[in-house]
Amino acid sequence: MRRRWSARRRPPPGRRTPPPRSNAEPAGTPSATGQGAAAVVSAGLGLVSLTGGWPGTVAAARETLVGQLRTAADASVATQIKEVYGDAWSTTALWGGLFALVALITGVVVLARPAFGAPGRTVQAPWTRSVAWAGVTLGVIGLLLAVLTYTGVLLGLPAAS
Questions:
Q1: Cα 136 to Cα 8, 107, 111, distances in angstroms
Q2: What's the pTM?
Q3: pLDDT 10s digits, 30-59
Q4: pLDDT tens across 90-113, in order?
Q5: How far apart are CA 67 and CA 6, in angstroms?
Q6: Among 87, 92, 110, 108, which residue's Cα sits nearest to residue 50?
Q7: Among the residues of the chain, which ranges form H helices?
Q8: Closest CA to 118 of 29, 18, 42, 20
Q9: Residue 49: strand, helix, or coil
Q10: Which of 17, 50, 143, 148 has the lowest CB atom count within 10 Å?
Q11: Phi, psi of 142 (to 5 degrees)
Q12: 149 and 52 Cβ atoms separated by less than 8 Å
């Protein structure tokens, strides 16, 4: 029968001692997994803010339909453009800005989380920080594009001639 040594007894000569326990969280703990998932969500939302999402498309289609119903057949071309296309364009920009803002906030929370954790437990996987920075960057770009699109600075409505 082999004799095993416990943490209270000293190991026999020639055996390695177990590594000392650390206060840092290993990469597979629930906190690290949640931070990684939040970083991926941040990057995904940032990407959706740039490419457009289903809610923005549905809201834009609804605004187009409402604009068509509100516009009289004998309305001027400028009024038709504004009612049918302008409101839908603004709605798409608003939804893109909303996704960008959520991506930005989520990424910043993931990056700031280690500063508010327990002392000595600030381990964060390098890929988590990288993906969170990607989410923040995509969020800033998406928010900037949404504001420029909504205000008409970028891709404004065509003028009626």
A1: 49, 5, 9
A2: 0.72
A3: 577 888 899 999 999 999 999 988 888 898
A4: 888 999 999 999 999 999 999 888
A5: 77
A6: 92
A7: 30-51, 54-70, 77-80, 87-112, 126-151
A8: 29
A9: helix
A10: 17
A11: -65, -40
A12: no
